[in-house]
Description:
Blueprint: H1 6-17, H2 24-27, H3 32-35, H4 39-53, H5 59-64, H6 68-80
Amino acid sequence: MQQITIGDLQDILRECAGEATQPLERAADLSFEELGYDSVALLEAHGRIERDYGVALCDDEALEITTARELVDLVNSLLRHGAAPAA
């Protein structure tokens, strides 16, 4: 089964918005804001995740996600439960 890791997310964020102030492996529970990512970077990353992993991230859920660990957990949960691909 396909999964996303913190490292995968870091690569996506780096491509979408540049390097974080700290490596995500050591800062997975810090907020995206604390890491220097703004809402535009996160929206772009969400779109990339939807395309690459074939999941649909609900806008309401996505707005509640504040850390890398939460986002990875959400995506992996969607993958485990066979979430419908994004339209």
